[in-house]
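ok new one. same drill as before - structure tokens go in, u give me an amino acid for every spot. 210 of them this time. try not to just spam alanines like last time pls lmao
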């Protein structure tokens, strides 16, 4: 494989593919061929294989998929795929970045948590199971999330949720979500103060003694 000019964020970057990366890509291609029987339709020649690898590597760099554990999760998803032909590089990377790869709630469950926690009735009481859900909801906007049609709100949240996982894949540490304050424990008054107030109340009601 020849080094390719890969676009990352804003600036083009020349990426040198070392021997270890070449070996990892070759192993991945063999694993994909073992799962997808129709791979020859997508990769009829080495040129098509190398093009897929180049685009896959570029997508990995853009998305932060640089750990074997994430790629292994993508392969587990591929193993459940019933299509005969392999996925596009972008689709495969999206499998690598699935919430389950990070031990996070599914998109559907995360959206339900976000909708509950951004409701005005939950102000000051919301509890977030992971900072990624909180930051995704903040990026969407609490008010927008509550007022958007479900289809649009769900898509918007999923996009922001994916961005948080990309940040995690790149090694960023997400700021913690605010912790809901626990109700303040009731303070016990001294017996003398309690008796004084009780005596005053009895006197007012005409039930005082003496």
């Amino acid at each position: 494989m020849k080094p390719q000019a890969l676009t990352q964020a804003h600036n083009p970057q020349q990426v040198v593919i070392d021997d270890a990366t070449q070996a990892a890509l070759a192993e991945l291609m063999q694993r994909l061929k073992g799962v997808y029987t129709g791979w020859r339709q997508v990769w009829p020649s080495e040129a098509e294989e190398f093009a897929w690898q180049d685009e896959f590597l570029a997508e990995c760099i853009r998305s932060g998929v640089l750990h074997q554990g994430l790629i292994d999760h993508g392969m587990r998803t591929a193993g459940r795929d019933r299509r005969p032909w392999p996925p596009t590089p972008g689709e495969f990377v999206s499998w690598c970045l699935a919430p389950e790869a990070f031990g996070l709630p599914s998109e559907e469950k995360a959206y339900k948590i976000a909708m509950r926690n951004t409701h005005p009735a939950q102000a000051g009481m919301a509890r977030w199971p992971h900072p990624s859900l909180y930051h995704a909801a903040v990026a969407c906007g609490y008010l927008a999330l509550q007022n958007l049609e479900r289809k649009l709100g769900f898509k918007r949240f999923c996009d922001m949720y994916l961005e948080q996982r990309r940040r995690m894949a790149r090694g960023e540490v997400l700021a913690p979500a605010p912790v809901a304050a626990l109700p303040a424990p009731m303070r016990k008054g001294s017996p003398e103060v309690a008796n004084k107030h009780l005596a005053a109340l009895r006197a007012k009601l005409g039930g005082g003694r003496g």
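Residues 39 and 206 are 94 Å apart (CA to CA). and btw The first strand starts at residue 4 and ends at 8.
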